[in-house]
Amino acid sequence: xxxxxxxxxxxxxxxxxxxxxxxxxxxxxxxxxxxxxxxxxxxxxxxxxxxxxxxxxxxxxxxxxxxxxxxxxxxxxxxxxxxxxxx
Length: 87
What we know:
Layout: H1 2-58, H2 61-70
C-alpha cells in the first residue's frame, strides 16, 4: 500500500514538474511577444508623432496662402471689388 502511494506521489510530482516547465516556457514566449509588440507600438507612436508634425507643417496658414498665390493665382480682392449685400 505504501509503495502504491509513493508511486502515485512520484507520478504526481513528475506531472507537476512538467506543468511548471510548460508554464515557464509559455511565459517566456509570451514575454518575448510582449516585448516585440511594445517595440512595434513605440515605433508606431514615433511615426504618428512625425506624421502629426508633418501635417501641422503642411497645414500652416502661410504655406496655404503661398500655394494659393503661386500655383492657383489667387489674390485678395481690391476694396473696389468687394460688394456688401444686405437683406
